[in-house]
Request: fold
Amino acid sequence: MEGYSELKVIGEGSFGRAVLVRCKNTLQEYVVKEIQLPKNQSKSLSSRREAVLLSRMKHPHIVAFREAFEADHLLCIVMEYCRGGDLLRRIQQQKTTCFTLDDILRWFTQMCAGAMYIHDMRVLHRDLKSKNIFLTDNGTIKLGDFGSACVLNSPKAYAHTYVGTPYYVAPEIWENKPYNNKSDVWSLGCVLYELCTLRHPFQASSWKNLILKVCRGSYPPLPKHLPYELQHLLKQMFKTNPKDRPSLHTLLTCHRVSRLLRAHLPPPTTQVKPVWVSTLPSSVRQPIKYNPGSDWFFLLGRGAFRQSAKGCRSSRGRGSMSSYIVTALLNMTKIHFYKSCRLRL
Reply:
């Protein structure tokens, strides 16, 4: 990687690997996420979604984007390095020692601040979970991993494709229904529950039972030493009907909740600029017709990318997982897919 010295690999996944690097000019440390670019042009453009979205986001509780470039058939996204690691590892380190209420409330409000910012930009994260939430060395929360994110073309638009991690997936997605930013609210509720109990709210030994628990909103109550307002907060976030589930803005301005979180609410940031859909790639936008007259790789103009690409038409295909979920919900007694699969943390 020109301009960077590779220090060590700090993560690997289906996307590729994450590498800790040091900038040769500034000696500043960053994380480079390496994504293998498919040969298929359409899929290759879709792989750039995360870099495009990250480049547009400037918020104290979102992992900062530095630049992106292509090298050796890899898309390399250079991002802020969060020395505190991810929240999942932090939770696992606690073992049986619960977090203090102050930590829970501070981290939760910071998560919400970052999520509200992207929702105002009509972006759905679609994979909010403790592993995708990071901590700086001073304990500040940063939302990251926007590889599953999408942009809706209007405030009232919905997404359709099955995306997410089972423990954090909202009922409407399991039910194969259109969904919006309320699904992110559900996922944040799952993270809040983890912070309070060090466990997932919905656990089961099979996909069938997990789906049933999620769609019924059936979870163990919080420990009694925690304030009632937290129980109320989770009850609102775990409304199984997304129409009854409040947005983050509504939730945090509720008198009962705001009174609990008042001391931890971050100062207002600068006004959010809307994401104009005409400047975004069709692979990022939720179904919008591609306009060949507009260069989707708008980042070329600001020099954030080192190699250009052309636009492509977006795909609305639904994976086999979604088909299975519909079958499972319509007739639980006939489940055959993943029948012997055991869920793991």
Notes: Residues 257 and 281 are 38 Å apart (CA to CA). The longest strand covers residues 4-13. Residues 87-264 form a domain with the Transferase(Phosphotransferase); domain 1 fold (CATH 1.10.510.10).
